[in-house]
Target: Tryptophanase
Amino acid sequence: MTVSFYSGQQIPLEMHKVRIVQKLNLPPVERRVEAMKEAGYNTFLLKNVDVFMDMLTDSGVNAMSDRQQAAMLEADDSYAGSATFTKLEQKIEEIFGKKYFLPAHQGRACENILGQVYVTPGKVVPMNYHFTTSKAHITVNGGTVEEVFKDEALNLTSEDLFKGNVDIDKLVAIIEEKGADNIAFVRVESGTNLIGGQPHSVENMKAVRKVCDQYNLKLVYDISLLADNLYFIKTREDAYKDASIRDITRELADLSDILYFSARKLGFARGGGIATNSEEDYLRMREFITLYEGFLTYGGMSVREMEAITVGLDETMDEEYIAQGPQFIQYMSDELQKRGVPVVTPAGGLGCHIDATRFLSHIPQEQYTAGALAAAIYIASGARGMERGTMSEQRDENGVETLAHMELVRMAMPRRVFTLSQINYVVDRIAWLYDNRELIGGMKFVEEPKVLRFFFGKLDALTDWPTQLAKKFREDFGESL
Ligand SMILES: *Cc1c(COP(=O)(O)O)cnc(C)c1O
Model:
């Protein structure tokens, strides 16, 4: 699996070479303070020209392969009946064993359709953990989300290799309490995004299937982050250490009734789709594709992207490709820990998750602990991560702040994008920041949208801490960028 070094050093080795490059810009720390202020202390609102390493997300920013680029040139441009769509549809059937495929422009578009078709006022959707857009599309249709994760899921320094597992007892209890008729569907998310890219096991998925069969419920499987989850099953679930990635994928897909994905994450391109073997479900969802997405043979995607997804899904079955992300994340987490920086363990997929609660124990959640840390990391390094904490929640009906279960900053690891020296640079700057953490202060909203406020909301620093931090940076680093 991994290549050993004669020196005994344990570092991940890129099993690909870089053939197209993009010049990066690292602005001086004074400009970084200004840029952060202009962006309302919200890393989503930074302009990419001011960003050195874009670690905001893995969405739509994964590097394409030579094979993907080549396939894009062959795309068949037609509104209806495109050969490109047929190729993608066949690839979905080959890999996931699902006959019917509905294309959509991204993951939340699939969630919109699932929400409109299956969620009516009063319906409940149990899930291992919510994702922002998945929850929004359930609540906007009058439903509620019931999270049935293991208690261990919220333990940030755990030894549990499958923190993304559904707690089966809690699942059964919620179905009994609400009544099976009131359950819209059960949703399992692979590589649970908001708890740090933590995987679920095949064994757990089998147990969920059993419960769904017992109560005659649909199992909807969000496979946006499947690539990382597959790697973790292969390397952490004993029964699957000799199974091929393809076989694991097929076994998981067979356990679900409907699966959907964001191809901005899965498949190294941009797009999405829903797949099922049920003709009835296919027909129920189909009309919404033409209403919201486009004709059934593109669903809002360009034919070029569909070609790239087809090849990208194939590459997702290649262990050497999907290993790179989790291995780099493990490396970054280990290096940060060596320097005392609190990170989520075990390292998950998607990105390195820093525990802002322990990093900034002097900043209360009401002052957006993780948001403040994300702003400070940008100022210290030019790398932008994403706040995953109270800023990403929304207030309740009475305007009361919903405090997040955890305050994390996610430094995403877009697949196949960064080199190890870049990761070493960001580790170095975060370690410096940790040693100067008492300089960091809290924030408050000055512009606060009601829905998904973390995308557009603007904040202000409660004191002039960003300037003080930059001053200390100059003292310690001299003329260095
Ligand atoms: C990103 C993501 C989505 C939404 O996909 P988009 O393409 O961003 O709309 C849904 N579920 C999970 C688990 C995700 O990570």
